[in-house]
């Protein structure tokens, strides 16, 4: 394995390659280190003045940001968004609130409160009431997925599938920028009752030791890569002492939204050394990289960051949801899968927008989603056909839409579970009555008048 920290060759004039010095110099790059600068709701009105939106439209977007989280950064704003294409630019839609993300009555209520400078308590109360109508924790996240150890509910872990446990580090429950469609939006709105997080590393380790069927740990958030390497190490290194844990995954959007985390941040070299340590332990280390649109791969720094990560021996697996108005075309997905494959990453999942938050605005009907997936899949080589989709992370498990066909004179969806709470259901095909407007598993009904999709798999 080649080291991620070897001295790089000097960059040629005009080359996009960043010259990286030896780690012994404590320097990450021959270029000045960019300073991370976050933008939050208080900056929103000023940012929107770049495109001369009328005051009423700016107020509407502020109203959305009072309910659903908004955070971006200077890299996204200056390097990824094409402001000449706003409001249709996909990265703008990906990171900036859209008025239609809230039902019209709720949008009007929040806008009126902000317009008359209502007391903060009134704004917070109204925002909470609206959030509670948006299904903040779908698929049993706060009940069916929470494990118990020695009588204690481990509310910072999720154990939905026998082989995999999700760990939510308390210090990693934010992101370099928030996606407007994020199904984890309750993590970021400042309501502790909606948040999943832990800093109890000892109990997490004890639970994993007590459950040797768990072979894979997924550190997620938020985004664990917002943490310093010192803090990330506290969660990663104990996993290396647990023999049954064979793979470690880190869910992150940092390669897209702040690639300097792996290049010029003060501990960029340290985090790559940590990755090398995981790989040297014999574990499989995967960065579950969230890429949504090919535009996120445009800056050369993203490609350089991916190279450095891959040089540690870690694998980059790419996933993201199909989202209306952002990437709902076969061309976008084929471009994304081809580009990431060329960069040595592995296309992994195309998800269906989940049944929470602004799904009504961003959701794509399953029938159209399958056609987009199929058309994109036909445009890529076999190396990119590792991707699976469209996939719904629903209550029973990961439900994949395999196709649309006619059986015994009835038009049906053909589906199967890639992963399930009940392992007996994995990989067994089943049929749902065709519904061109269905956007989620709960919209589907068993085909042929049956009462169940499969024995043990009931309609929601």
UniProtKB/TrEMBL annotation:
<keyword id="KW-0663">Pyridoxal phosphate</keyword>
<dbReference type="InterPro" id="IPR007197">
    <property type="entry name" value="rSAM"/>
</dbReference>
<dbReference type="InterPro" id="IPR013785">
    <property type="entry name" value="Aldolase_TIM"/>
</dbReference>
<dbReference type="GO" id="GO:0051539">
    <property type="term" value="F:4 iron, 4 sulfur cluster binding"/>
</dbReference>
<dbReference type="InterPro" id="IPR058240">
    <property type="entry name" value="rSAM_sf"/>
</dbReference>
<keyword id="KW-0004">4Fe-4S</keyword>
<keyword id="KW-0411">Iron-sulfur</keyword>
<dbReference type="GO" id="GO:0003824">
    <property type="term" value="F:catalytic activity"/>
</dbReference>
<protein>
    <submittedName>
        <fullName>KamA family radical SAM protein</fullName>
    </submittedName>
</protein>
<dbReference type="InterPro" id="IPR003739">
    <property type="entry name" value="Lys_aminomutase/Glu_NH3_mut"/>
</dbReference>
<feature type="region of interest" description="Disordered">
    <location>
        <begin position="1"/>
        <end position="37"/>
    </location>
</feature>
<keyword id="KW-0949">S-adenosyl-L-methionine</keyword>
<dbReference type="GO" id="GO:0046872">
    <property type="term" value="F:metal ion binding"/>
</dbReference>
<keyword id="KW-0408">Iron</keyword>
<feature type="compositionally biased region" description="Low complexity">
    <location>
        <begin position="19"/>
        <end position="35"/>
    </location>
</feature>
<keyword id="KW-0479">Metal-binding</keyword>
